[in-house]
TrEMBL record:
Pfam families: CoA_binding, Put_DNA-bind_N. This is Redox-sensing transcriptional repressor Rex. The gene is rex. GO terms for biological process: negative regulation of DNA-templated transcription; response to redox state. It comes from Parablautia muri. GO terms for cellular component: cytoplasm. NAD(+) binds at residues 90-95.
Amino acid sequence: MDNKEISQAVIGRLPRYFRFLGELKDEGVERISSQELSDIMNVTASQIRQDFNNFGGFGQQGYGYNVAYLYEEIGRILGLDKTHKLIIIGAGNLGQALANYTNFDRRGFLFKGIFDCDPSLYGKKIRSMEIRPMEELEDFVKENEIDMAVLTIPKASAAQVARRLSHTGIRGIWNFAHVDLDVPDGIQVENVHLSDSLMKLAYNINRSENQMLPGFESQLMDEK
């Protein structure tokens, strides 16, 4: 595969391909065509072929895709052929829930530490991790060769914490704070705005209800 730029829309579909292919592999399916995969995933067969062609294609005309091989290759593209060491910053409800979600381990995402600024939480254990004070952050990241940090903290402190992390050699931030972070080149950020997703769901429910109302076609024209 060359170093051409891959669109975020294509990248966003890769985890979904990986998940469906994993289910097919577990069911004993050995090969599948783009049309069969299309029927399962509700993505057009043409789109599937275009997506895979970004990485050199994986199929053979008249044969389709080898499910196990395609699953393995997409996992490799996603970086799931190696382990990633993570820390969580923010030991509130969300931070604790993420730390307790064991499915991350199966994908090679290993939580090594959890931090907070509340002294009353220090020493409390989440799984096998003790909640640590923020003063230990930089040393812990460097000593444990942490790859990624998960931010589950208020947005007011997220930018400051991101700046601290940028000096530790961290490579990625999974950001649940409701603010977009400005970090140096070389640090990848994935912003997760939970309320945005919920509002999108509300919009789709509202739109579905409005489709049953008179005059909806003219309303659609107004939206464009």
